[in-house]
User: Fold these one by one.
Assistant:
Number 1:
Amino acid sequence: MTVGSVHGRFQPFHNGHLEYVLAAQRLCDFLWIGITKCDIAPVDSVQPGRSRERPENNPLTFFERLEIIAEALTSLGIDRGAFGFVPFPIENPERLHEFMPVLVPCYTTICEPWNEEKIQTLKKAGYDVRVLYRKEPKTVTGSHIRRDIVAGSESWKGLVPDATVRAVERLQLRDRLLRLQTGSVTDTVTL
């Protein structure tokens, strides 16, 4: 049985993420989906000033992201037994081995400079990194989707799987994002 892995913040899971996950899924019998920034609470990190570390850019919990991705994949007919989830703390690379053995290849893409940095981090940690494709500039971003949600726009709905649309509405993600932007304490809502 061939096993592989993908990883990302998936804040929220969008069509670019789906394309990436499906490309890797076609290459293996079982796919581990690593959720980075699995602890959304602000912490001291290697790069504390990065936009990706800010709470307003990480509104969804580990479990919420897991459920969205699982629903998106199973709705396409992918067997739930063909993939699993694991925390993937790329922001603390010394801890990666606690969650994913180095024997599992890491599939990735190159869509922005962060991807190149991530590849080097994974290689330095001993992982076999396999680039699926290069697509620059990135056409869909989580930050663009989050901004559209906050603005009350509907255009983001065409950029995400139906599972994400349903979750954003059910979780009242717009309200959560607005609270995070104003620095209010977030309430954790599970699916």
Number 2:
Amino acid sequence: MTETGLAQERTSSSETETFDQNITRSLLSAQRNEITEYVIYDMLSQSVKGAHNKEILKQISEDELEHYHFWKKYTGREIKPDRWKIWGYYLISKVFGITFGMKLMEKGEERAQASYGQIAKVIPAARDIEQDENDHEKELINLIDEERLKYIGSMVLGLNDGLVELTGVLAGLTWALRNTGLIATAGLITGIAGSLSMAASEYLSTKSEGGVQDPLKASLYTGSVYVIAVLFLIFPYLIFGNYFFCLGLSVLNAILLILVFTLYVSVARDIPFRKRFFEMAGISLGIAAITFGIGILVKTFLGLDV
């Protein structure tokens, strides 16, 4: 064989070896994901209350274990699960809800599935695993019955009203009063009164609709989220002395609350994040700017000097 032929053969052999190594890494990564998610779903199935959710989580965990054994046939290895990922998603699911935790994990899984197309060139049956991950497991996750998701509309109402009302009040009071103690006191009284008013309104509204929601629970979710928004916006005025600096921190806290809550809703409900975030942030900051201007007018024309 000529030297050129030998060189071409070495190059071809090298490319095949690299391709095989890439496929092997992808297979081992997929296998580890499956055993990790099996452990997560199994732990959650043992910790949740209610036979319905327990059964769904158990079924998903069994599917993940089946997928693990599928990949094992090709790798011939036993793979240990990712303990950090297990406890991370387990804690997220316990704090923010199973649906949120599982859908957040599912989004990470979508990135991992990008390698399935490459694997399927060598192992066509990998397409079935990908299809199962995309369809069957998503359907099962959507069947999970979680109370907090039933009242997510009430939480959105409480957060949105609390942020819009209180950012506006604090902006107006900051210019009109120019005293952090007075601003905090007036804002806290306004916030508590507003939360009670919103809770009562949500109770009456839910009761009149006669739906599946419990009016008392709906009012509690609305009022509780409203109070959380109030506390986040008020606390800078209880710590710092510069009222304009406090207003800036309150606005920053409002944006942070909107960011976190919008992320939660977008993941749990599979809705676009960007549009909802900018909509809520625009409304809250717009109202704050308007009421800040009203505070200037009130102080100027009424001649108030606190």
Number 3:
Amino acid sequence: MLAHQLPALPAVDHVLDRVRDLLRWIDEPAAPLRIARALPAYQAGPLETTIAPRGGFYWGGGQRLEVVRFAGANLLMIEFTYNGKYRLVEPYSLRRRGTGNLLLYGWEQGATSIKAFDTAKIRDVAVTNMPFTPRYQVEFTGL
């Protein structure tokens, strides 16, 4: 019913698990919520900012970054082509470098650390219906 409005829907079980965690305080006031770690220490330049662009396309880049933002906020993996290679990634953050490059920080399936992807090199980005458990704080939801 919502397929025409949303790029993908998370699995119902995944959403219910998240809701149960959020509402656990009602029955168990002292139970801690599962909180993801913050992103690793990052040496930001003086002009670097964290952003989560609103709108269908990032101006000047032509990438569909709204679907990346949607996927991150809903803990869904994204897939795209980067430097000619297929990638399956957990999206965590969009940050602009002082050089003007817009970077997507995400954990690629099979990787051993978080990676930065230059959004100018990302092609055919799409949201999958595969949920992920965050390894770091997802910065798309704080804006």
